[in-house]
């Protein structure tokens, strides 16, 4: 067993190994005991580093209307009535309410979505989440307690791939 005991008020620090002890020089403390040690900055969470792009958060209690373009991630905690274009990820928190239309790569719904929704990749609806309208998705994941009402359609891989190729050609021109 190996342990060190901190020196207090000029007493030497002791180190013990398996029952034998030795006296060492006193350990010096860089700060007085009344000053808390500075902590190194915490590493950002994985989701924060992945989300480093253009992100818009509509906070709880905020109401917004209009069109949103060129946003990598939209997080809705309040109420929005918008048309969403050129967005990779839509996340609706439990307090969030989205009304309008959007086409996104991924959608994660814990609140309410009303309108036309096209998800090229995965649509996740959590317990308590509610999606209503014309819904098109590549993959879907529903938790127990999720609600979906309206017209559902699965995007087939062939049309999805041709759409992506035409988008790439359009962006290259």
Summary keywords:
173 residues, 11 strands, 2 helices, 3-stranded antiparallel beta sheet, globular, mainly beta, 8-stranded parallel beta sheet
Task: Describe what this molecule looks like in 3D.
The chain is mostly beta strands. The chain has a domain of 120 residues. 12% of the residues lie in helices and 52% in strands. It contains two helices and eleven strands; from the N terminus they run βββαββββββββα.
Strand content: over 45%
Largest sheet features: 8 strands, parallel
Shape field: globular
- How many beta-strand segments? 11
Q: Helix fraction?
A: 10-25%
- End-to-end separation: 70 Å
Let me know the average pLDDT.
77
Radius of gyration: 27 Å
Summarize the helix and strand pattern as letters. Answer: EEEHEEEEEEEEH
Number of helices: 2
Which regions contain 5 or more consecutive residues with pLDDT less than 50? 13-23, 43-51
Oligomer: single chain
Q: Which structural class should the secondary elements be placed in?
A: mainly beta
Could you outline the blueprint of secondary structure elements for this entry?
Elements: E1 2-5, E2 14-17, E3 20-23, H1 46-50, E4 55-58, E5 63-68, E6 71-76, E7 79-92, E8 97-109, E9 112-125, E10 130-142, E11 147-154, H2 157-172
Parallel strand pairs: 4-6, 5-7, 6-7, 7-8, 8-9, 9-10, 10-11
Antiparallel strand pairs: 1-2, 2-3
Quick summary:
This protein has 173 residues and is mostly beta strands. 12% of the residues lie in helices and 52% in strands. It has a domain of 120 residues.
